[in-house]
């Protein structure tokens, strides 16, 4: 993916290459490109990773200029919180009302944002007339609703939650009982096919909650449905993970495994309704964990929080969002922003369990030069008091990610690492560190003080040009 940062880097590399010619003429040249620009808003920081950062937005946001300003400044993907649901858009049968939904969609598009449509078919928030239907009548009403609403918004929607929350909680792994489910087990795929016909340009997603922990039966059940859909050509492009967390349902440590395994089925994954009840550093750490999990999976294309201010939340007493009731940035906000700017620590493939090969994530040519264990580069002979460990990150057919951990041996006030590439490799992205380029295939990354035993990490992407050799890395400290 090409991000503004990538383009800057490419321009910088061309400049460095030109200067390299002068260096050959015995002129000592040291050129530092500008330090990596950190995104100062959530949308800017996420864009640097090739992802979006979104929020749910309700009609009442238009009555509060403060909330509207934050929404415009921080977010570039918009989900209508209630205004595009079945009860809002078809209050009486075949009488469609798009006024509230249109207000949000038009505002988003006019302000350069994309829209996530929520939701075409759901057991909840059905209009009264639909709640009273069953069988073929209900099936046809549902399909008509999907078709008409998707046609109305055709060309304006990045991704639709075609079906929402169709699986039961608990250990059964079964479908949720609902009037829609009782029309026949194929109601979900029928909805997806209708949505594809109505708006072929929109990504079509299945969206649910309590599907974050890979070991949970509900997660497995949704995974198996998506796998089945992909194998039978049912048009599904993405899976949304609502991500409503609290102390009884914390962010699972295997979240990246879940996201990676779904992505490995050949779908995009998105965090669609993120909120985490709590406060202070524990809340901030959990938000950070969600961002890390998404950043670790190439096909996790974005994160949406379920509202802007705590006071706007559907569970406001749990203060689960990134801005307090006055619109001030919370610790959780800073944690998310910093993690987006630091980038992720990509993990290999999909995860540890039940991985399905995905050609876009796992290149078929397995480079023989790549050892399977992580070598440790000893401290440089220059006698510095830091050491570096290189670990392999995600690999694609044309590029690979690498992660470097710098560890202090004794207290140090600064550290400098030199990353040496081999021809024809080029670095296309750096995260978590400030880089300069004294020569075309030499990158210097520097950082500040570390206490004895403390470590810090940065990462980069190498366009390998056919040479999979790991870069050599040295470290010096003062
Ligand atoms: O607007 C009416 C108001 O006129 C009326 O006086 C009041 C009386 O109860 O109700 C108001 O409507 C409420 C609406 O939110 C707007 O505030 C509904 O009662 C209330 O049920 C509705 O709740 C929404 C909920 O979905 C319904 O299931 C929440 O705002 C919305 O955040 C929530 O969002 C869901 C996602 O769609 C799916 N995933 C879970 C998520 C959280 O529950």
UniProtKB/TrEMBL annotation:
Residues covered by the GH10 domain: 36-339
One Pfam family, short name: Glyco_hydro_10
Enzyme class at the top of the EC tree: hydrolase
PROSITE patterns given in the database record: CBM2, GH10_1, GH10_2, TAT
GO molecular function: endo-1,4-beta-xylanase activity; polysaccharide binding
Composition skew (Low complexity), residue ranges: 353-375
Ranges where the record places region Disordered: 340-387
Active-site positions on this chain: 273 (nucleophile)
GO biological process, one term: xylan catabolic process
Keywords: Carbohydrate metabolism, Glycosidase, Hydrolase, Polysaccharide degradation, Signal, Xylan degradation
Catalytic reaction equation(s): Endohydrolysis of (1->4)-beta-D-xylosidic linkages in xylans
Domain CBM2 span(s) in chain numbering: 379-478
Signal peptide feature range: 1-37
EC annotation from Swiss-Prot or TrEMBL: 3.2.1.8
InterPro entries the record matches: CBD2 (IPR001919), CBM2/CBM3_carb-bd_dom_sf (IPR008965), CBM2_carb-bd_dom_sf (IPR012291), GH (IPR017853), GH10 (IPR044846), GH10_AS (IPR031158), GH10_dom (IPR001000), TAT_signal (IPR006311)
Record-stated family: Belongs to the glycosyl hydrolase 10 (cellulase F) family.
Name of the featured protein: Beta-xylanase
Provenance organism: Cellulomonas uda
């Amino acid at each position: 993916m090409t991000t503004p940062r990538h383009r800057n880097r490419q321009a910088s590399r061309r400049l460095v290459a030109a200067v390299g010619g002068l260096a050959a003429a015995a002129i000592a040249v040291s050129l530092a490109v500008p330090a990596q620009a950190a995104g100062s808003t959530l949308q800017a920081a996420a864009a640097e990773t090739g992802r979006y950062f979104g929020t749910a937005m309700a009609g009442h946001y238009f009555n509060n200029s403060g909330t509207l300003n934050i929404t415009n400044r921080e977010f570039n993907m918009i989900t209508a919180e209630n205004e595009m649901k079945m009860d809002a858009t078809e209050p009486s049968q075949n009488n469609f009302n798009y006024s509230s939904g249109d207000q949000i969609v038009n505002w988003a598009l006019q302000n350069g944002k994309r829209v996530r449509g929520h939701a075409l078919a759901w057991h909840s928030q059905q209009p009264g007339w639909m709640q009273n239907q069953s069988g073929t009548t209900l099936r046809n009403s549902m399909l008509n609703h999907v078709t008409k609403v998707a046609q109305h918004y055709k060309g304006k929607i990045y991704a639709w939650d075609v079906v929402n929350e169709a699986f039961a909680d608990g250990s059964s792994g079964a479908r949720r009982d609902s009037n829609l489910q009782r029309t026949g087990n194929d109601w979900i795929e029928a909805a997806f096919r209708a949505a594809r016909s109505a708006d072929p340009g929109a990504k079509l997603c299945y969206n649910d909650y309590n599907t974050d922990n890979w070991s949970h039966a509900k997660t497995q059940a949704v995974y198996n449905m998506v796998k089945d859909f992909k194998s039978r050509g049912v048009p599904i492009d993405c899976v949304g993970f609502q991500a409503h967390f609290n102390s009884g349902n914390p962010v699972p440590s295997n979240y990246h495994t879940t996201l990676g395994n779904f992505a490995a089925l050949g779908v995009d994954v998105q965090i669609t309704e993120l909120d985490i009840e709590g406060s202070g550093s524990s809340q901030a750490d959990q938000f950070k964990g969600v961002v890390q999990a998404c950043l670790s999976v190439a096909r996790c294309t974005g994160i949406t929080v379920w509202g802007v201010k705590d006071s706007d939340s559907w569970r406001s007493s749990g203060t689960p969002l990134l801005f307090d009731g006055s619109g001030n940035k919370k610790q959780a906000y800073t944690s998310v922003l910093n993690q987006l700017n630091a980038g992720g620590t990509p993990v290999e493939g999909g995860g540890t369990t039940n991985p399905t090969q995905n050609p876009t994530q796992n290149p078929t040519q397995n480079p023989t030069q790549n050892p399977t264990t992580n070598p440790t580069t000893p401290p440089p002979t220059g006698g510095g008091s830091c050491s570096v460990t290189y670990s392999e990150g995600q690999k694609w057919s044309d590029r690979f990610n690498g992660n470097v951990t710098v560890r202090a041996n004794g207290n140090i006030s600064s550290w400098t690492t030199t990353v040496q590439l081999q021809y024809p490799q080029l670095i296309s992205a750096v995260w978590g560190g400030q880089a300069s380029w004294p020569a075309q295939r030499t990158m210097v990354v520097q950082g500040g003080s570390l206490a004895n035993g403390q470590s810090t990490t940065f990462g980069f992407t190498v366009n390998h040009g056919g040479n999979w050799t790991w870069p050599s890395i040295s470290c010096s400290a003062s």
